[in-house]
Amino acid sequence: MGDVPPKILRPHRDDVLLAVASVLAGVLLWSLGVHSTGDRHFFPAWAALVPLLVIGPMELLRRTAPRLTLAVGTAAVIADQFTVGNLGTVLVFTDLMYAAVVYGRPAMARRLPVSTGLVTVVVTVVAVAWLRTPQSLMIGVLTGIVCFGPALTGATLRNHREAAEAARLRAAQTALLAEMDRTQAVAAERARMARELHDLVAGHLSAIALHSTAALSIDSPATSREALGVIRENSVQGLAEMRRLIGLLREAGAGQDAAPVPSLDGLAALLGRARANGAASGLDFVLDDARPPGPPLPAPVELAAYRIVQESVTNALKHAAAGPVAVRLAREDGLLTVAVDSPYGDRPGPRVPGSGAGLTGMRERTELLGGTFTAGPAGPLWQVRAALPAEEKAVRE
């Protein structure tokens, strides 16, 4: 008993009812004298109950052991032909044939309709050739009804079930892929918003932190007044930038046209503000735009280049030593190159700690467009280099 699979020990409830009903119906037909073979018998009438009692319990295993039940059922229905015959035995065999196709292995399910069809044809031909009467065709018809019909019905049902299961799996896979796309889209949008928020606010907050620290550390009314003026200016500008970003998000959510995004034409104003904020630290900002006349840059490239310069300037305000900060733009061989060189080393006065998010954001912006990005010290300078595709086709690809 320990080697028998648990599922065979617990047959399906419907199979139990089917087995009991089949045996009782066969016994009832036998008691009423309803036989299927007429006078073609070699044993007493009670012998017809033996194949019935053998094949009936096979209904309990029709789902779990279809190969076994079909083999036993075939032997029982052949033996039944040598008795007075029991219609219940034949009906049970048709159900076992059907179940073997529906619940059996795929190979068996494919073979049974073909093999039973061939058996039907062979029986029909042999019967006609042997008996040579029109009634002999009925033997082939009955054979087809008993074996080929149930096999074909089971194959049709199994194909429908497999098609429905495949459709369900495809629908589940499609839903999973859609959910993954949605999750990735949300993550990408959050990362984009984080970069925009950092680039918009970090410069102003850095200037506020620097000048407020200077005002606290230097006991001079003139210095405090100048620092408060810079703090106020950056606060107002930062608030304006935040309002613009919030408005942009609201308009995009409402399906309206997006607000204008910064472009390289605004670099002069950006460096002008940085020059005013960094004057107290001995920083000067210089722009060298070496781009030749040509077609306009794609909007994503314009925005990425502007943000890279903006973040580089912010980092210079927070960390650079006194000296010139050089910003250079060039366009050649289908690439827009952005280069920012700032003095690298210790400097007197207040400094603002960094988190590294700015470098991460610049790298992400560059890689999203298929460009290259490097940043790090090179002698007395801190160098930022970004190469972005300058053609619309390359950006789309």
Overview of the molecule:
By secondary structure, the chain is of the alpha+beta class. The protein folds into 2 domains: 6-174, no CATH class; 264-397, Histidine kinase-like ATPase, C-terminal domain (Heat Shock Protein 90, 2-Layer Sandwich), CATH 3.30.565.10. It has 12 helices and 5 strands. It has helices spanning 6-9, 13-31, 49-55, 66-80, 87-103, 106-131, 137-217, 221-253, 267-278, 299-319, 357-368, 392-396; strands spanning 283-289, 323-332, 335-343, 372-378, 381-389. The chain has a 5-stranded mixed sheet with strand order 1-2-3-5-4. Helix 2 (13-31) packs antiparallel against helix 5, helix 4 runs antiparallel to helix 5 (87-103) and helix 5 (87-103) runs antiparallel to helix 6 (106-131). The longest helix has 81 residues, at 137-217. The protein is rod-shaped and about 125 Å long. It starts with 5 loop residues before the first helix and ends with a helix.
Notable features of this structure?
Heat Shock Protein 90; 11% strand; alpha+beta; 12 helices; 5-stranded mixed sheet; 2 domains; 5 strands; rod-shaped; 397 residues; disordered N terminus; 63% helix
What is shown here, in short?
The protein is an alpha+beta fold.
Q: What percent of residues adopt helix (DSSP H or I)?
A: 55-70%
Q: Per DSSP, what share of the residues sits in E-state strands of 2 or more residues?
A: 5-15%
Helical region count?
A: 12
Q: Give the count of structural domains.
A: 2
**Global structural class:** alpha+beta
Task: Give the termini separation.
Answer: 66 Å
Radius of gyration: 43 Å
Number of strands: 5
